[in-house]
Write a structure and sequence with these properties.
Elements: E1 9-13, H1 16-30, E2 34-37, H2 43-55, E3 60-64
Parallel strand pairs: 1-3, 2-3
């Protein structure tokens, strides 16, 4: 990981299960810098996650993106 090169990273995945799996895998390395959003998360959780990503509290956001 290189914080100087990547201040924020947005990861789009095709499945909610993939988002959760990736979150679990990366959580060990990035801890509280990581968040995940999809429709199985509460609206408050999703809003808070996006706000924290925008403010730079969370540097990595994993998002389910239905194509």
């Amino acid at each position: 990981t290189n914080k100087e090169s990547f201040n924020k990273v947005l990861i789009f995945v095709g499945f909610k299960r993939t988002a959760d799996f990736l979150f679990k895998q990366l959580e060990e390395f990035f801890g509280s810098e990581l968040c995940v959003i999809h429709s199985n998360k509460t609206q408050n959780y999703r809003i808070r996650s996006i706000r924290q990503f925008d403010e730079g509290i969370n540097r990595i956001l994993i998002e389910f993106n239905f194509v």
